[in-house]
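Today's session is about reading a structure prediction critically. Students often jump straight to the picture, but the first step is always the sequence itself: look for stretches that repeat, for charged clusters, for runs of hydrophobic residues. Only then move on to the predicted structure, which in these notes is written as discrete structure tokens rather than atom positions. Here is the chain we will use throughout the hour.
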Amino acid sequence: MALAISGMGGLSGASMAAVKLSSPDSQLHIPLAPRSGYSFGSRLLPGCKMQFPKKRYRSTLTVNNIASEVLATQKDKKAVSKENQRPVYPFAAIVGQDEMKLCLLLNVIDPKIGGVMIMGDRGTGKSTTVRSLVDLLPEIKVVSGDPFNSDPHDPESMSEEVRQRVEKEEQLPVTTTKICMVDLPLGATEDRVCGTIDIEKALTEGVKAFEPGLLAKANRGILYVDEVNLLDDHLVDVLLDAAASGWNTVEREGISISHPARFILIGSGNPEEGELRPQLLDRFGMHAQVGTVRDAELRVKIVEERAGFDRDPKAFRESYMSEQQKLQNQIYEARERLSRVQIDRGIRVKISQVCSELNVDGLRGDIVTNRAVKALAALKGREEVGTEDVRIVIPNCLRHRLRKDPLESIDSGLLVEEKFYEVFG
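Below is the predicted structure for this chain, in token form.
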């Protein structure tokens, strides 16, 4: 597209000029009356060129691809901004800790499993592994401009405002975004977690408005709590309430609002710093036990990999780009395959028999184990659950649900494995 300004007579006079906007299929003429003394300079517009023929007072202003240049500049700024963000250690570069990595992947494939509790020694890469999961998270469809990441097709994951718009049969603007991971710091206040009054709107506009908190941002995403066993009791109560109902209700200064808060709860901690309340521990779908690597060769490899990342994070991440892409594709295919995975009734009965003989309270153990084995089968590319799938995941699903015996020296996971072999043969 070209833009031309033409006029007869002196450029500084008050004569009429015309703007000609031409494209392959349209032309537009707009008369202009320039002010006296106005002249066209080189700083009129970036990318503009002025031509002044000697014999005629005819000026031509040519504008080339300004829109595309602006879009390119915006893309460059986004790319630079992404590069300047704090680099994340690649998930594919994590050495060892297979149990923890498997539990995290299964929860990404099926968020209904209910999250992971990772307990282990200090310095074993718990936080690093969880935060490295960000690159592997798939995209989801959300309603544009909605602070609660509402699902445009699932009423259970819609905010009240979006639901009202659906009832009015409005056309919802839909976009895709990556599943977000929200860090819940130990020093966070209850208002910051649940949401509070928007003071700015209250003072400027005189209206009571709600400012969403971390639970709203974490809806349909991941809520990560590092050192979860050190979390204040009142925040634990908030998490318990939201995790149980899938909704967060806020009562503040005459405002009552409820919004969906369905998230994957991931926590990590060191058992030396204290135990977790049984009520909160039961809310985690799976439990991963992390130990210090004892093999000298593996320890050296971990140190070398970490040194390479610290030296040049960008080059290190690029070296693992292909492996990261393979993991992303594997997760995407597993999520697509999950709905087709079948589990034999005989296997279901044996899973429940293991839970019953271990005196597991409630039925969460049965439900989570059934979901986890289906996610594992989908991850392996199968549509039928096998006995081996149950053997791999059942200790992680039941270990933290057993009643604690202070005189018992054997690990809870080993107790679950023994009962598995006894029931499944």
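Discussion point for the tutorial: The longest helix spans residues 66-84.
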